[in-house]
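#structure-requests
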Amino acid sequence: MRSSAWIGLVLFSSAAVAFQPSRWAHKAGKADLDRSARGPGGFHGARWPLRAEGQGDGEGGDAGALGTPEDEPFLSKVKRFLADPEIQEDFKSYGSSLAIALLIRFFLVEPRFIPSLSMYPTFDIGDQLAVEKVSKLYRPYSRNDVVVFYPPPSFIEITGEGGKKKEALIKRVVATAGDTVEVKNGGILYVNGVPQEESFTYEHAFYEFGPVTVPAKCVLVLGDNRNHSLDGHIWGFLPVENVIGRAVFKYWPVWRAGGIETAPVDL
């Protein structure tokens, strides 16, 4: 839950920075006041220049007639708009917010959307979650971690979806390097000969699997909805280098928000 709380704080802080109140309305009101300010001699500090033609008393226009926005070239309008100190301040503010959001998105946390029922009941269709990408650098994956990953070549070969190889999947780690895995006795998962207590699964598997031993630098992943998941019992082991990060927090819909359910590891 500490990771969940941290992720929630990061997302809230980022949103607060990105959606700070705008000063655009204030500037618009100020500009209107500037244009309406009159003195004894007429307009003072007018926003638009006098017409070049018609400044004399002859034909061609009224003397001293004010120009309109349509008389100013578009490029000049843009330059003058960007020269406004308050506009520049806004660009700096929103630019900084965007840079922070992109840094968080690519290096710390990224949002993901659940499109199927392979991880039901932990995730339902439409759930949105945060995937943190930092802990993988210093903490090895362990059983019951829920991970988001790019599918391995064996998945591509079985499904024939070579063009979608960068599509991310989400499953639960059930065994790590060196573990011996087997599914037997009515679909119960055994790791190193010990039956696993998995309260987060929808039902026991209708298949038998193994025994197999997870090779080095790999994990075995299965869906929580064991009988409706295209996972490691079909396409094999997942190289850890394919893992994007750990799923740590559901944030949408709000009534399902919270941490990701796990279970104690039965050695």
